[in-house]
Amino acid sequence: MSTDRLLEFDDVVARYEPVFGLETHVELGTASKMFCGCATTFGAEPNTHTCPVCLALPGALPVANAAAIEATIRIGLALGCRIATWCRFARKNYFYPDIPKGFQTSQYDEPLCTAGHLDVEVDGETYRVEIERVHLEEDTGKNLHVGGATGRIHGADHSLVDFNRAGIPLVEIVTRPVPGVGAKAPEVARAYVAELREILLALGVSEVRMEQGNLRCDVNTSLAPTGSLEWGTRTETKNVNSLRSVERSVRYEMRRQAALLDDGVRIMQETRHFHEDTGSTSAGRSKEEATDYRYFPEPDLVPMAPDADWVAQLQSDLPELPAARRTRLREEWGIADSEMAWLVNAGALGLVTDTVAAGADPADARKWWLGELSRRAKDDGVELADLAVTPAQVAELCGLVAAGTVNDQLARQVLDGVLAGEGSPQQVVESRGLAVMGESDELGAAVDAAIAGAPDVVEKVRGGKTAALGALVGAVMKETRGKADAATVRRMLEERVLGG
Amino acid sequence: MSTDLTHLDVTALQAALADGSASAVEVTQAHLDAIAAADGGLNSYLHVDALTALATAADVDRRRAAGEELGRLAGVPVALKDVVVTQGVPTTSGSRILEGWLPPYDATVAARLKAAGTVLLGKTNMDEFAMGSSTENSAYGPTRNPWDHDRIPGGSSGGSSAAVAGFLAPWSIGTDTGGSIRQPAAVTGLVGHKPTYGSVSRYGLIAFSSSLDQAGPMARTVADAALMHEVIGGHDPRDSTSIDAPAAPFVEAARQGATGDLSGVTVGVVRELGGEGHAEGYEPGVLAAFQAGVDQLRALGAEVREVSCTSFDLALAAYYLIAPSEASSNLSRFDGVRYGLRVGDDGSRDLDEVMAMTRAQGFGAEVKRRIILGTYALSSGYYEAYYGQAQKVRTLIGRDFAAAFADVDVLVSPTSPIVAFPIGQRVGDPLSMYAADLCTLPASLAGLPAISVPCGLSEGLPVGLQVMAPALADDRCYRVAAALEAAQDAARGGTFLGQLAARA
After folding, report:
1. Which of A371, B35, B87, B145 is deepest in the core (most CB within 10 A)?
2. Residues of B in contact with A167 (CB under 8 A)
3. Of the candidates B492, B484, B491, B486, the residue with the CA atom closest to the CA atom of residue B466
4. How far apart are CA B399 and CA B405, in angstroms?
5. 3-class DSSP state for residue B44?
6. Which residues form the Amidase domain (chain B) (predicted)?
7. Between β-strands A215-225 and A235-240, what pairing exists: parallel, antiparallel or unpaired?
8. What is the DSSP letter of B247?
9. Does A441-497 carry CATH code 1.10.533?
10. CA–CA dist B359, B354 (Å, integer)
């Protein structure tokens, strides 16, 4: 548990100016690894997706995955980067059991993409985040420390290494430091990662499942007294693996560093670990003992020289990017910025779009995803997209409501069935018998029973207090367990109490 | 019969196998017998697998008898330098750190030789991780020179040179980073060719210096070397640096050269490699034999002129920065985690200690020396001054070659400034050992093809003449070397190695 002293956030931003920057690692969704033909699928038995190349057996050589190079260039283009006409891979040398060659094949001073930007919106304001570089490298294996209490190497009995992940293509996207956003820094950092995630999804280059480690962030944060011409010393918080954590880690570091600076303590340039449970960070290794990686150009791989015509083709083949798409949809759907922001933040934009594409009215689609479905996702602690219902099914449900087959209350019961895996909405309506009751004998009998059961109410209504009719409607709805249409019931009651 | 079969060159062996005068089993058995008889003295093999070799040979004989289609080299025995990864056959690269490792895959070179029907006799000794010029740096003891058992067989492919010169294999695969095919070929009286960088796949060669390593043939005749090169060469999608271009026919170039006509060929003698003002460190007998070889080329019709390549003087310094730098990184994978030796893993030590102990005990002195050199050269703050400068020298050497080849077709020099030296003479003096590579380094740094062909004896020991050509013009090496070989054989009235056989 952290014992850091923290300053209140409002006090921090009253006296200090934060600067943050992000290094984001994205596992590409290519079929094969970066330098060999092994599969990249997640969750296989340990060390089954390995070969001489990704195990770094003596003599094995890498061959670069063309699909990964193409995906990296497309990411660079989507971020407005310059694409290198000639660049190389480089070796980053260090010893660790999860890095089988004793070096990571990465890029150093010759990245594939440089000098881009990404505009993000927070509370209606647009902030420009400059992109320094986008480069291609390979992922490491995974260490499993067995026998300790914490799952960390300290105290472990022994360690196992799984090389299935070793060599999966990894794109690193590095921002320039982002100054001048003040109190918004945590939210801008989060919004940047969220927007980046949307772009990666739109490009189709990665599943971007943060919980599977497809997207991992290192967050740099520093503080300087407001008005200072120099930036403060930064810390680098490693492996921040959810949007919420990005925001929390910046906020925490700002509060922690401010408390230290208030006490006149120098900030150490160090890497820190983020703890999901407490939202705090703790010290990792300090940069003073940092490794000299002895980068040099990778002699086993020929340089990359993307052809200008090919890059131009990739540029023109880029899909509609999220910002443009949002603008277009906002206009098509006639909704406000704030509602669009809500859709995006809820992770619902794609789902709503797909639901509309499947035939639903945009307003109905939004209502379902932001309302009932968001509630259920929250209750179950899952992402909206992970609910066991497809946009097509939601569209079908909207259709059933629009056609009057079910009302809103019944529709929620239909949803229960769909989420329970009972089939399509139509199938659930049939199997559970959830269709709205028409003006049938059965409904007539329920209406008559309600009239007979409440002579005093009937008197009041006949005496002119028509509002009392609501009690009779309620009785009928209760009797029919919600399957009746309230308007129909009201009309039938009016006819039988007041009419003829 | 046995002795005869081990003394045939490959072309003659192929004829004997084809006309039925010898079976593959007989040929293999003859070599296994010779190894059993003589390798105790030479120590040229680290591993011999007699049973598998005989089974492979028997399979060739059976298929030949059944009239099945056979590979181009069916039944021809071969020895592979132990740097070449062979599936199911121990591969150590001359190091303790890989003792006991059984590779699960074949190097492309090994696979191509296998597909051609060759019979693998065994794996040959070498300087550990190919670092050395004498094979004294092997973790498994030095190999001896068949011409004089008290002398080195060259290196790092000294097991491959001794086995072929000692009639324990008809030919072999060597690898050359700074001269490790050519220099051992020269000091044992063989033909050794380092192909154009990228023309033979490096997949499955245990890497020493990735930008320099090349596998190539070591044989008793230029024609045999050309034949092996044709079999192992060509594009390999598993090696990113492999060249995807058709190669000139090497066997045909050797045949053409053997006709003895070099009219129209311009030969440049590199002044900086033993010429006037640059002869320090070159033995007079070596220079004399080289001069005799050049005179023979002129007699065959070649136009000979002197060429100056001033940057070659910097080659040694540049090489000993680039090769150790790449090696320091290439050898990082030997950490005891996945294969090979692991030292100190008794539960009382942490990971860093186990890695350090494994590497401390697994690597020999020369390997450690080069890892330290390379680590230093790549370190932050030193990179530009060392690795960066060395790369610039490499560019200059390439330019000198390009300028020279604008005027001449091939360049020639002695292959080594010295003949085979006595075992133990230079182990305490790395710089004098490194000087053995003086003549071979420029072509290595420029990625160019270069062949060593015998040109005479000095103090009764072989001297090699090196022929260098532009990239992908390996055929010129074979043509010129074959012409010299034919002229010398004719003058001598026998093969170069026949002189060694006659002594026995």
Report:
1. B145
2. none
3. B484
4. 10
5. coil
6. 26-477
7. antiparallel
8. P
9. no
10. 9
State the pLDDT at residue B42. 97
Decide if pLDDT at B68 tops 60: yes
pLDDT at B2: 43
Distance from the Cα of residue B442 to its chain's centroid? 16
Cβ-defined contact of B207 to A63 (cutoff 8 Å): no
Q: For residue B74, with 0-12 CB atoms within 10 Å meaning exposed, 13-18 middle and 19 or more buried, which class applies? A: buried
pLDDT at A287 exceeding the cut of 60: no
Closest C-alpha among B214, B41, B56 to residue B121: B56
The tens digit of pLDDT for each residue in B109-127 reads: 999 999 999 999 999 999 9
- By percentage, how much of chain A surpasses pLDDT 90? 47
Contact list in B for residue A144 (CB cut-off 8 A) is none
Q: Which two tokens stand for residue A310?
A: 């090919």
Mean pLDDT for the stretch of residues B243-253: 92
Provide the mean pLDDT of chain A.
89
Please state the rounded mean pLDDT for residues B129-134: 96
CB–CB of A490/A447 below 8 Å? no
Closest CA to A351 of A366, A330, A336, A335: A366
Q: Which residue from A448, A415, A421, A450 is spatially nearest to A434, judged by alpha carbons?
A: A415
Q: What tens digit of pLDDT does each residue of B426-442 get?
A: 888 877 878 788 999 99
Question: Phi and psi dihedrals of B306, rounded to 5?
Answer: -85, 145
Give the per-residue pLDDT at A498: 80
**Catalytic site includes residue B194:** no
- Closest among B375, B379, B364 to B327, alpha carbons compared: B375
Q: Which of A53, A61, A162 to mutate to test the interface with B (most CBs of B within 10 A)?
A: A61
- What tens digit of pLDDT does each residue of A394-436 get? 999 888 888 878 888 888 888 888 888 888 888 888 888 777 7
- Given a contact cutoff of 8 angstroms between Cβ atoms, the answer to whether A112 and A84 are in contact is yes
Cα dist from B475 to A366, B194, B360, B480, B491, whole Å: 73, 12, 44, 9, 24
Residue from B330, B354, B380, B394 to probe the interface with A (highest A Cβ count within 10 Å): B330
Residue A265 touches chain B, beta carbons under 8 Å: no
pLDDT digits (tens, 9 = 90+) for B72-95: 999 999 999 999 999 999 999 999
Instruction: Please report the pLDDT score of residue A4 as a whole number.
Output: 84
* pLDDT tens figures, B176-204: 999 999 999 999 999 999 999 999 999 99
Among residues B57, B62, B4, the alpha carbon closest in space to that of B29 is found at B57
Beta strand pairing call for A296-297 and A90-93:
antiparallel
Residue B156 preceded by cis peptide, ω within 30: yes
Burial (CB < 10 A; 0-12, 13-18, 19+), residue A373, is: buried
Distance, CA of A296 to chain centre: 36
> ipTM score of the complex?
0.95
Query: What six digits make up the tokens of B36?
Result: 């059993």
Q: Which of A411, A410, A404, A415 is nearest to A487 (CA)?
A: A404
B503 SS3 class: helix
Structural domains of chain B sorted by starting position, each given as residue range(s) with its CATH number in brackets: 2-310+403-503 (3.90.1300.10)
Domain residue limits, chain A: 9-310, 320-432, 441-497
- What local confidence, expressed as pLDDT, does residue A146 receive? 81
Within 69-98 of A, beta carbons closer than 8 Å to B belong to 91, 93, 95, 97
How far apart CA B189 and CA B492 sit, in angstroms, is: 14
Q: Give the HSE-up count for residue A81: Cα atoms under 13 Å, Cβ half-sphere.
A: 27
Tokens of residue A496, six digits: 């039988």
Would you say residue B1 has pLDDT above 50? no
pLDDT value, residue A1: 46
Other Cβ atoms within 10 Å of A224 Cβ, number? 18
- In which region does residue B344 sit, left (phi positive, over 0), alpha (psi from -120 to 50) or beta (all else)? left
Q: Does residue B84 sit in helix, strand or coil?
A: strand
